[in-house]
Amino acid sequence: MAKELSLRGELAKGLIEQNAVFVLALGLCPTLAVTTGLKNAVAMGMAVIAVMVCSNFIISLCRKLIPEQVRIPCFIVIIASFVTMVDITFKAYLPPEINAALGIFIPLIVVNCAILNRAEAFAYNKTIGRSLLDGLGIGLGFTLSISLLAAVREALGSGTLWDYPWMPSSLPFEYISASVMIQAPGAFIALGLLMGLFNRFLRKEGNL
Fold this sequence. Notes:
Layout: H1 2-12, H2 28-33, H3 38-61, H4 71-93, H5 96-102, H6 113-123, H7 128-158, E1 160-161, E2 164-165, H8 184-205
Helix pairs in contact: 1-7, 3-4, 3-5, 3-6, 3-7, 4-6, 6-7, 7-8
C-alpha cells in the first residue's frame, strides 16, 4: 500500500508542490508567449506532456548506457527527436491558426527548462515507472497552469473563452475587454498575480 501511495505521490507532486510554472518558474518563455488564447495553451500543454513522458521513458530506459560526461547532449538529442515528431503531427492535424500561434515555441520545447530539469534531476536516476509518472505529473501541472493563465488572459483581454463569448448577451450592458491582457504586459501581470495566489495557498496549507 505504501508503494502505491508513493507512486501516486510521484504523479501528484507536479500538480502542486513542484508545479513547473507557479512554483519552480520553469518554461516561462512559452508560458508568457502562447497564453493569449486557451486553445493555444492546451495545444502547447499537450505537446509538453507528450515530449516529457516520452523523453523521460527513453532516458530512464537508457540511463545506464548514457555516459555522465555527455548526458546533457544526449538528453537534448532524445528530446529533440520527440519534439520533431510532435511538430510534424501538429502541422498535419491542428488548424493553421493554432500552428501559427504556437510558431517557433514548439521547436523550442527542445530547450524547455522544465523538460531538461526532469531529465537531469529525475529520469536519469530513477526507474522507468517512476520516470513516466513524474513526466506525466509535471506535464499535467504545466498544462493546467498555462491553461489557467490563458483562460484569464483570453477572458479579460478578448471577452471570450475557447473563442466563444463568456459574458451572456442577455445582460443589459456590454463587456469591454482589457486589451492589455493579451499583450506582453498583461502576460506578466496575470502570471504574477496567479503565482502569488498559488504560493499563498501553498503556504496556508503548509506545503511551502
